[in-house]
Amino acid sequence: MLTAGPTHEKIDPVRFVGNHSSGKMGYSIAEELASRGAEVTLISGPSQLKVNDTSIKVTSVTSAKEMYEASMACFDQMDGAIMAAAVADYAPADYSDKKIKRDGEEMVIRLVPNPDIAASIGEIKRDNQVLVGFALETNDAVENASKKLKKKNLDFVVVNSLENKGAGFQTDTNIISIINRYGDKTDYPLKVKSAVAMDIVDYLEQYF
Ligand code: PMT
Question: Which one of 107, 156, 187, 188 is CB 3.0 to 4.6 Å from 180, fit for a cystine?
Fold first, then answer.
């Protein structure tokens, strides 16, 4: 199972809180897994992308809550999960079903925490299931990613940092490091996301 893309947290019928994820990284991993014979369920936030491999089962969602529900509903039947989505950590507390009008005054939108999907899966994961997380960082990448690995009970974490040109959101390339739960770190050079996906799936194969 894979999560990919952004989530959109609705404010009113025309506005949302979101982020810059295109889905490219997660979709590339889904294609790579399917090309090696895996049965893939891709839970995707709003993305322009389409899958090429028709064996990939796509569940389209919009918000973090929907992604959480779709992920929790199918994880039990999965051999593992790769959490490549950029999930909004907060959502507006209130939704206005009419477009909010501009009145020239300051406006405050109260945000409430969304469920942490990776951490929730980390809590229910069995010993024979593998959980892979991503960490998108802007500073202290290794330290922050290692904390996420422990907190979310990941088997390994794929770190990408916006400090590196050509890494992260929207680009066709990425620069990653993989850190496992024993603290071993493997660094990879700049590659196109399809080649990064091969590296991640190669690393994953040793868990099966
Ligand atoms: O889609 P692209 O444009 O190709 O960009 C790829 C990417 C930068 C989005 C991808 O490589 C990436 O880093 N994805 C994870 C982004 C992120 O939200 O990282 P994080 O450090 O905030 O989250 C840590 C982990 O917890 C991630 O596996 C995330 O999916 C998961 N998470 C986070 C919050 C939440 N509420 N639920 C989650 O499951």
Answer: 156
